[in-house]
From TrEMBL:
Coiled-coil annotated residue ranges, if any: 4-31
Protein name stated in the entry: Bifunctional 3-deoxy-7-phosphoheptulonate synthase/chorismate mutase
Gene3D superfamilies cross-referenced by the UniProt entry: Aldolase class I (3.20.20.70), Chorismate mutase (1.20.59.10)
Matching SUPFAM superfamilies: Aldolase (SSF51569)
Domain Chorismate mutase: 1-88
Length: 356
C-alpha cells in the first residue's frame, strides 16, 4: 500500500471514530433533554455552552486555530440542541404523537369530542338573571345542554361594559342549576380561577389571554374543563403551545376553539381559519370547536360557517344568542335573537348531521 493510501485509510478510520463519538455525544444530549423535560425546563444554556467551549480551547494544541475549533464545536452544539427540541416536540402532551386517541371532555355529562357535535349558545355578556334565564329556556327547549355567558368581559375600550364579575358567575350558577345546563364563562385573571370553579362548569380563556401564561398555568392547576380560544394573531403552533401550558400543569380537559384571526380583510370581523380545524384535529387529540360569532361578526354568516366547521370535522359550534341584541351591552350587532336562533337551529339540523 502506498503512503498516500495508508494516510487516507487512517483518515477514514478517524472519520468513523469521530462519527461514533459525535453520535455518542448526541445520545447523552438527548438524555439531558429528557431530564430537563421532567424538570419542566427546556432552554438553551449559554453559561454551560461557554464553559464547554473554554474547556475545549484550553485543550487545543493545534494545528487548528481556536476560532476554527470554536466554529466546529458550535455546529455540534447546535445539532444537539435541535435534537433536544425534536424530542420535546415529539413529546408534547397535547399531541397525537403522545396520545393517538381522541380526548373526550365531559361537561356535566355532556361529552365533547365524541364525533357528535355539541352546540354552545348564550349571550355575549351576562347582563341580568332574566336575560340569561330567557336564553337558557330557549337552549333547553331545543334539547341542548350547554350555555355560555361572559361575566368578565375583556373589552377593547376600558370605558365599555366590563361585565358583572362575580355577580355574573352567581347568575350563571343559578340558571345552570334551575335548567340543568353546563355553563361556560371566561375568566381573565389567575386569582379568580379558584372562585370560578365553584360557579361554572367550563373555564373559558379568551383570545386576548391565549398567551397569558400565568392564567394558563392557573387553569392547568384545577380540575375543571378549559375552553381555550385561539389568540387574535396566534399561529396554530402558538395555540397548541398555549394548550400545552395548561396540560403541562396536569389538566388535560381542554377544548380548543377557533374564533378567527386578524387579517387585512374587513368584510368580516376576523377571518375564520377553517383549515385550523383539521390541522388541530390531526396534530392534537383535543376536541375543537368553532366560534362562528366572533370569527365573522356577521349574523348572515353564522349558518354557512357553522356548516363549514362541521363539514371539516369540528366537534361543535359556539354562537351568541341574546333576547334583544339591539340593547345588548356588548357585541350587539352579531348576536342572534331568539327567532334567529330558532331558524339557525332548524336549518343546521336539516342540512347537517346535527341531531339534538
Ligand atoms: C367571548 O367568547 O365572549 C369572547 C370575548 O371571545 P374572544 O375571546 O374569542 O374574542
Ligand atoms: Mn361577544
Amino acid at each position: 500500500m502506498s503512503n498516500l493510501d495508508q494516510l487516507r485509510n487512517r483518515v477514514d478510520e478517524l472519520n468513523v471514530e469521530l462519527l461514533k463519538l459525535i453520535n455518542e455525544r448526541a445520545r447523552l444530549v438527548q438524555e439531558i433533554g429528557r431530564v430537563k423535560e421532567t424538570q419542566g425546563v427546556y432552554r438553551y444554556d449559554p453559561v454551560r455552552e461557554r464553559s464547554m467551549l473554554d474547556l475545549i480551547k484550553d485543550n487545543n494544541d493545534g494545528p487548528f486555530e481556536n476560532s476554527t475549533i470554536e466554529h466546529i464545536f458550535k455546529e455540534i452544539f447546535k445539532a444537539g440542541l435541535e435534537l433536544q427540541k425534536d424530542d420535546h416536540r415529539k413529546a408534547l402532551l397535547v399531541s397525537r404523537k403522545k396520545k393517538p386517541e381522541d380526548t373526550i371532555v365531559d361537561v356535566k355529562g355532556v361529552k365533547v369530542g365524541t364525533g357528535t357535535p355539541q352546540l354552545i349558545f348564550g349571550p355575549c355578556a351576562v347582563e341580568s338573571y332574566e336575560q340569561v334565564a330567557t336564553v337558557a329556556e330557549a337552549v333547553k327547549a331545543k334539547g341542548l345542554r350547554l350555555l355560555r355567558g361572559g361575566a368578565y368581559k375583556p373589552r377593547t375600550s376600558p370605558y365599555d361594559f366590563q361585565g358583572l364579575g362575580l355577580e355574573g358567575l352567581k347568575i350563571l350558577k343559578r340558571v345552570a342549576d334551575e335548567y340543568n345546563l353546563g355553563v361556560i364563562s371566561e375568566i381573565v385573571s389567575p386569582q379568580d380561577i379558584e372562585t370560578a370553579v365553584q360557579y361554572i362548569d367550563v373555564i373559558q380563556i379568551g383570545a386576548r389571554n391565549m398567551q397569558n401564561f400565568e392564567l394558563l398555568k392557573a387553569a392547568g392547576a384545577v380540575d375543571k374543563p378549559i375552553l381555550l380560544k385561539r389568540g387574535l394573531s396566534a399561529t396554530i403552533e402558538e395555540f397548541i403551545n398555549a394548550a400545552e401550558y395548561i396540560m403541562a400543569q396536569g389538566n388535560g380537559q381542554i377544548i380548543l376553539c377557533e374564533r378567527g384571526i386578524r387579517t387585512y380583510e374587513r368584510a368580516t370581523r376576523n377571518t375564520l381559519d377553517i383549515s385550523a380545524v383539521p390541522i388541530l384535529k390531526q396534530e392534537t387529540h383535543l376536541p375543537v370547536l368553532v366560534d362562528v360569532t366572533h370569527s365573522t361578526g356577521r349574523r348572515d354568516l353564522l349558518l354557512p360557517m357553522a356548516k363549514a366547521a362541521l363539514a371539516v370535522g369540528a366537534d361543535g359550534i359556539m354562537a351568541e344568542v341574546h333576547p334583544d341584541p339591539a340593547v345588548a351591552l356588548s357585541d350587539s350587532a352579531q348576536q342572534m335573537n331568539l327567532k334567529q336562533f330558532d331558524d339557525f337551529m332548524a336549518e343546521l339540523q336539516s342540512s347537517t348531521h346535527v341531531r339534538v
